[in-house]
Specification:
Layout: H1 2-14, H2 18-29, E1 31-41, E2 44-54, E3 59-67, E4 73-86, E5 92-101, E6 104-116, E7 119-122, E8 125-129
Antiparallel strand pairs: 1-2, 1-8, 2-3, 3-4, 4-5, 5-6, 6-7, 7-8
Length: about 140
């Protein structure tokens, strides 16, 4: 009985509190990120080159490049605010962004998978912390 009680106490002490999980999402995502890959766009794969800077103060800048049907890159820069909260699974975070761009405002929320401290997965491809290399090819 004493052993069971001790193990339960240890297990509850090791389980992060909700605020700690929320802080963990923000901590992991704060920084500079880059990724390249194919994303499904309107029924066909689109080549994307994506860079994101999630700042500690809750602001962000993203720079997206999309390869158009004419084989020319289209560039888009977005700025705004971001937040991250725990996702449905332990290795997921919900990334919420409010964006402003050339003549528009928008908001989005997406579940991302934290692969490791230097990689997260979003929109079907991996984003890597700037200055790091993928540990293995996908």
């Amino acid at each position: 009985m004493l052993f069971t009680l001790s193990m339960a106490t240890l297990a509850s002490a090791a389980t992060p509190l909700p605020t700690e999980r929320a802080n963990a999402c923000r901590t992991v995502l704060t920084g500079e990120w880059a990724g390249k890959g194919l994303v499904e766009g309107f029924g066909k794969p689109v080549q994307v080159d994506h860079a994101a800077s999630f700042r500690r103060d809750g602001s962000f800048v993203t720079r997206n490049r999309y390869l158009g049907d004419d084989k020319k890159w289209v560039e888009q820069e977005l700025t705004g605010t971001w937040s991250a909260t725990p996702g449905r699974k332990r290795n997921q975070c919900k990334l919420a962004m409010k964006m402003q761009g050339s003549g528009f405002e928008s908001s989005s929320s997406s579940d991302i998978v934290i692969v490791n401290a230097n990689t997260y997965r979003s929109l079907g491809f991996d984003m890597h912390r700037a200055g790091t290399r993928p540990t293995k090819p996908r």
